Amino acid sequence: MALSSFDIDAPRWDQSTFMGRLKYFFSVTDCRTALLPDSRLDEAKALVESCRAGSIPPGTTEEQLYFAKKLYDSAFHPDTGDRMNLIGRMSFQVPGGMAITGAMLQFYKTVPAVVFWQWVNQSFNALVNYTNRNAASPITPKQIGIAYATATSTALATAVGLNLYTKKAPPLVARWVPFAAVAAANCVNIPMMRQQEILNGIAVTDENGNKLGHSTKAAVKGITQVVVSRITMAAPGMKLLIQLSSFFSAQITFLHAPIQVMMVGMFLVFMVPAACSLFPQRCSIAVSKLEPELRDSIVSQCGDSVQYVYFNKGL
């Protein structure tokens, strides 16, 4: 392929299959990209934009273009093209998740500790949810503040309430409560941080990217898929980690904390890309399932030529 005709936005792997999406997300969630300075990321963005404009610098190789696109996708929002904050990037999920999950498992001894670490965890989740939202839906600083307060407080109350239940729950039930708390908190935190999408709808387009309107049903579908992905991301660590770490460190108590942190990282290295790959990021919904007003508008504009609309569901 001549680099002059290189389409940098064409998927390197087939995004219609789980394995294709898995390869893609293994690339863009690579935690090593989180260590790169902003100047290096800006260079990658400049190269991507040059390629889009049909002006590739002489001597640039195909692998350099692919690597630039990897950095671009890992650090810049697909809707706005703006550089995302470091902590909210999916490439930061492994180190961030290691630190917070390890601390939560290690210091869940008292009610204040449970409350504090759940607040840290839900604040981290809120930032990730905000960073990876559908940014085509505008949101004001006041709305961000209200969303953060409602998301963290309700998720915190849900998680703490369920975790405190473990003290009086039967042993079999108690083993499931920490995971249930995380799952329930995700079901609250994500919709709350992205509530403007549910209230006002998200932009939907035709196959060629032409905007057709805003849909609340599309927002609900996208956010539901994100909730499922996040719960899947947490499941192996929450269910298997406690048992495995206890097995390996039962006789060496001083290694309990580092073993837990290391194993959280091992789970997340695989589960972050795997969970992100469950559903296509460019989601679709049938025109027949949209709100009647939007459906009628699309039919009046396009007739029967548009059967599905597309939108960025976020991560």
UniProtKB/TrEMBL annotation:
Keywords for this protein: Amino-acid transport, Membrane, Mitochondrion, Transmembrane, Transmembrane helix, Transport
Any one Pfam family match given in the protein's UniProt record, by short name: SFXNs
Family: Belongs to the sideroflexin family.
Transmembrane regions listed in the UniProt entry: 259-279
Protein name: Sidoreflexin
Cell compartment(s), UniProt: Mitochondrion membrane
InterPro entries: Mtc
PANTHER family: SIDEROFLEXIN, SIDEROFLEXIN-2
GO BP terms, alphabetized: serine import into mitochondrion
Membrane topology: Multi-pass membrane protein
GO cellular component, one term: mitochondrial inner membrane
GO MF term list: monoatomic ion transmembrane transporter activity
